[in-house]
């Protein structure tokens, strides 16, 4: 597996998402990642710390540069809880839960996020402003309504299917409403 290629691909996909999403400093970016799928295996069967390191290396520095909070989704064994920085927890009044993700229960990417993110904690739910889903891990439950798909020239990370989304405010008010800011 070419892990340097994964770093480049995930960074490019993230930049494509950020171009479309118009995120502001302090917004939340959620990622879900099956390192098993990145390696071409069935989700949950071949957790891999090297693949996780490549994903974090491609994403986290960009988040730091742009002032974004990174939320890393754990696997289904931890009910898709998320690893975030304590500062994010405080800003968004999130509730910390007591668990430590490991490769077999939480996933390699979440496990590495606990070691990499500044003052990392785990929360049960979040409403992120945009997200990347690597390997069909179903991050939609952690996105603000309304999610809008974003396309990139990068369709796979390793062997894993990649989907991305940004969010926008709900359109309300009916036929007389105006949605453009004047």
Give a verbal description of the structure.
This protein is an alpha+beta fold and 182 residues long. The protein has a single domain, classed as Hypothetical protein TT1679 (Rossmann fold). Helices cover 31% and strands 22% of the residues. The protein is built from five helices and nine strands. The chain has helices spanning 3-21, 35-38, 49-66, 86-91, 108-116, and strands at residues 28-33, 69-73, 82-85, 96-97, 120-123, 130-134, 147-150, 156-157, 160-167. Strands 1, 2, 3, 4, 5, 6, 7, 8 and 9 form a nine-stranded mixed β-sheet that branches. α1 runs parallel beside α3 (49-66) and α3 (49-66) packs across α5 (108-116). The longest helix is centred in the N-terminal third of the chain and has 19 residues, at 3-21. The chain starts with a helix and ends in a 15-residue tail after the last strand.
Structural features:
nine-stranded mixed sheet, 182 residues, alpha+beta, single chain, Rossmann fold
Instruction: Determine the CATH superfamily.
Output: Hypothetical protein TT1679
User: Span between N and C termini?
Assistant: 50 Å
Q: What's the total helix number?
A: 5
H-E string: HEHHEEHEHEEEEE
Helix content: 25-40%
Give the overall shape. Answer: globular
Q: Average pLDDT value?
A: 96
Structural class: alpha+beta
Give the amount of beta strand, in percent. 15-25%
